[in-house]
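Let's practice the habit of predicting before peeking. Look at the sequence and jot down your guess about where helices and strands might fall. Then scroll down.
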Amino acid sequence: MQGPGRQECNWMEEVKLRINEEAEGVSLSIPPYFRRFDRINNEECPSIFMRPRRMANHQAGVDVAPTPMIAAQTPSSQQPPHHTSRGSTGGSVIVAAVGPYHHQSESALVTHGKKCAIVKFLASQDFGLDTTAFLGWVLEKDARVRGCYERDSFSMCPEKLAEVLLIDGCLVLFAVFLLRSSVREDGRPAELARSAVHEKEFSYLSADISLHMKQTRLDLLLLSNQIPFFVLHELHSRLAGTFFRGIVHNIEKLALSCFDDIRPSPSPSASGDGEALLFPPTVHHLLHLFHWSRVPRGKHAVDTYSILLDDPETNLPCATWFDDSLTSFSKHAAPPGILDIVFQKKIFGFRGVLRVPALHIHGYSDLVFRNLIAFEQSHLRCGLGVTAYSFCMARLLQSEADAKLLRKSGILAHTHKTDKQIVDLFSGLADEYRGTFYSKDMLHLCKEVAAHQRSPAARAVRGAVLQCFPRQTVTFFVILGAFISIATLINTVFAVYRFYHPVNN
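Done guessing? Here is the structure:
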C-alpha cells in the first residue's frame, strides 16, 4: 500500500499543528478539588481534609437528541428513519461531548482545547501516539465510519471527520483509562500523577473527569454521543504498550468495567474476572457494550412474527392482580443484573410465580432506560430485551399500590424514588414506544399469563379466595375466629365431661 500523498501529508500536518496550538492555549490550572490519584496506595500521604463545596450547577434537561447513532457496520443493518429517531433519549451532555453530532459543542466541561491537550499528551514522546498515521488510517475507514451513522445525518468532509474521531477518540480512551474498575489494581494513574514529568499535565487533564465520574459515565451512555468502537480499539492498540503499559485487560473489558456502578448492574457472566468473556463478535459502541451486559443471552430476538397489529398489554395485569390471584413474586428470576421477567406455574397450575429481577431506581434511571430502548429500536439485531422489560414493568406498575407491593417483595430495592415516580417512569417509557416492535419471548410471556388467567383451576381457586377472603385483613380475622371457636368448643366439651365425671379426691 502506497503512503499518503504530499497533499494528504500537508493536511495531516495542519491538523497536528492546529491541535498543538489549541492545546498550548489551554492554561494548565488544576481545580482546587479533584481526585488525587497520587494518594492511592501511598501510605506516606496523610488524609485530605476538604472544605464543603457547592455542587456543579448543571441540570440534565430533557430534550430530543440529534438523530441517534445507528450501530451498523453494513448498509443492510440500517433501519427506517421513523424507527431511528423515535422518542427522546432524555439528557444532554455535561462533561464529555463526542462524535460528529457534538463536534461544535462548547457547553461541556471538557472543552475542545482540553481535548486537544489530551491528544498532545498522548502524542508526546513517552506515549508515542502517531497522530499522522492514525489520521491516515481513519481516512481509509471513512466509508465504514459513515456506515455507523444514519445516512445524511451530518455533513462533514472526510478530513474533518478523521480529525473529530482522533480528538474525541483520545478523550473517550482517556476517560476509560480513568474510570475502569482496575484502576487500583495496576496503579497506573497514580504512577502518572506522581511522575515528575507528567504530574502537572496529567492532574490537569484528569481533573474534570475525576470530579464528575458518575456524570461522565452517563455522558458516555448517550446514544447520540457515541463513536464507532473499532476506532477506540485501534487507538488502544497503538497505546497498549505505552499509556496502557502494565494493564493486561483488553479494551472491551476495560470499557465495560467503567459502568460497573451504573444500575442496572452487569450480569455475573459479563463482569467475571479474566479475559474469557465472550463479547459480541462486533461491538458497535459503548452503549452497545453496556446493553449487551444487561440483557439475557439468546432471548428477545426480533423476527417477522414480532411485528404486532395489536398491543399485548391486555394480557399483562397489574401487580396487585397477580397478588390477588395467588401468584407470588420472586426477585430471583435470573442472575443479578439480567433484565428478564419469567412466569412459571406451581402446584398443578393452581398457583403462579412471576420472577422479576431486583431493580435499583436512581435519578439517572430514566436517562439510561431511554437510551437503551432507543438503541434497541434503531438496531433491532441486538434484540429488544430492555423494551420488553420496560413494557412489562409498566403493566405491573399501574398504581402506587402496585409499586408498594413490588417494593415489599424486594423487587424495587433501595430506591429513594416515591411509588408515584416509579410508576410514572415506566408508564412514560411504555407510552412513548407503544405500538412498536415486540420480541417473541415477550409475546410468549403474555400468552402464558393469559392462559393462566383463563385456566379452570386458577379461576376456581381465584373465585373461591376472592369470595371467601377478599382482603388479607379479613382472612386474618377469619382464621383467628376459627381458632377461637375451636378452642371454645374444646373447653366446653371438657367442662361438660368434668361435670358428669368429677375428679375423686
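How did you do? Residues 304-459 form one domain.
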